[in-house]
Model the fold of this input.
Amino acid sequence: MSDTSDSPFSILQDVFGYPQFRGLQQEIVDHVSGGGDALVLMPTGGGKSLCYQIPAIARQRRGMGVTLVVSPLIALMHDQVGALHELGVEAAFLNSSQTLDEAREVENKLWRGELTCLYAAPERINTPRFLEQLDRLNARGKLALFAIDEAHCVSQWGHDFRPEYRALAMLHERYGNVPRIALTATADALTREDIIERLKLQEARQFISSFDRPNIRYRLVEKTDAKKQLLRFIQDEHEGEAGIVYCQSRKKVEELAEWLSAQDIPALPYHAGMPAAQRQQHQDRFLREEGLVMTATIAFGMGIDKPDVRFVAHLDLPKNIEGYYQETGRAGRDGGAADAWMAYGLSDVVNQRRMIDESPAADEYKQVMRGKLDALLTLAEAADCRRVRLLAYFGEQAGPCGNCDNCLQPPATWDATDAARKVLSCVYRVQQHSGISFGAGHILDILRGKTTDKVTQFGHENLSTFGIGADLGEVQWRGVLRQLIALGALEIDAEAFNTLRLAGPARAILKGEETLFMRVSEKAPAGGRTRRSTGGTGSGTARKADHEAGLDADGLRRYQALKAWRAEVAREHNLPAYVIFQNATLAAVAQDDPRDLDALASIPGMGEKKLAAYGDEVLRVSASA
Ligand code: ADP
Ligand code: ZN
Done:
């Protein structure tokens, strides 16, 4: 038995049952197992957990003691620890959800050297009692490694700043002999520098993976009737599948869950204003049941490792590209086809700008936030490959991907120079005429020559720009406005009722020094439907079949039987089904139809512990299906 092997590769095979490392995993695992410090940047679903779990097992087997995993994800620790138990790895957590007795029990195990991984929240680590325990472990040489998960939480430039993370620099000062690995899926340069500085990781080796998630299809559509667009997207492409829908406000989250449920799409809300118990319950149901849609604020999702989330939808504009990428990254962790779908409109842009302007933050900070929002707007208005732009934002170069809306259906562009000048001169004239600025709606009315009450009240029908934009429709004009805002030629003044004023490149555009090409706004109010490049019908079933694709009728029967059996086990253990076995593993069993434990052992995802615990059952269920 290789149970005592401390080589990372045999741990990968024996404990996890995986035949090989992915991407940079091997280099990282070797470096950290050998005592090196590391900063790991990998996209969501890239396989970060193995990067600290394997060194933790290796170092424990070498007699070096426990790995402390720092994580802000209290609500997920139970499942994370359960997943390690299923693999036969001794693990526990310490957090505020436990009784004193439970915490004592964990501390005893820690002291007896029985744990390979201990999960704890940063606020726990900063307590004198806990530090004293670490001191004692360290004095005996039984502190093997610090793993700092979600490391971007230390940075205020990241999107999940947690002040408690700042104190973690102390781990290095106090236990300089213990190696550290910090991991994050947030990677823009500013945040990265900040993580290194704040956690004192200057000496750590950096491992930066490609951030591409090729199986995710990016689609950004113009918002017309957001709810209906969403409904159509789900019904047409993801019926019966798990997904997350992000909205900005708690109220909207709740209303949407109710509305979707009424449309026969099972949905649950999640936001930080809900009672903790209910939040946990909804999260658990999302992880444990199949085909639930979670409507949520950004409070939901960090650390959610459900592999078969088939879509992430945004009904409101995120704050920046990091947030967008992080949120969309929760789709398709199993590598199967998944959608990142967003509906956005002019009002989103105005809202986000206002939120930044009205926030109590320092000016320097607001400036950075505005820049980040602009980058997202530029992405949204882009007519070329979304992935190329996303990856460029993270410092990566790529060619057109063939798996985003713009690649699949290149949007038409038009020379909008003239239209842009009309808008800008209208904004200018109105300001000049009335001495005050006006909002987007009023500017559009003037351009299009509408004699509204407000127009007559201010005498704006007499302006030379009144009616000069009658040639274009409302949708197109809104598109021009959005793109001018994205370009920085128009600014929204939140302190003056979201009025528009000229800025940045406006002057050059007005003078005719710049030519602007813009994507043609969609005229059809129908949902953001795009045709499938694969020749599929675009129906959910075509995509759902991922794991079932290669299975014949017998195989499909075995697969269904195995899934039903797995659901039972998961319920008994109070864990999500994918923690017992992932779909890919069950599908491989159904396909190969192994007849004995030896044959079963070669299926990916079938580690030694799982083989011993479930092997006979799996063979029996598969054979009798
Ligand atoms: P991250 O934490 O980076 O978001 P995870 O660690 O949860 O990603 O890994 C994502 C998925 O990939 C998990 O289902 C995990 O079991 C799987 N995985 C990771 N590494 C490997 C590997 N070397 N071989 C097969 N599957 C892997
Ligand atoms: Zn593309």
User: Anything to note?
Assistant: Residues 385-387, 400-401, 404, 406-407 surround zinc ion (ligand 2) (CB under 6 Å). The domain at 413-532 is CATH 1.10.10.10 (Arc Repressor Mutant, subunit A). Confidence is low (pLDDT under 50) at residues 524-545.
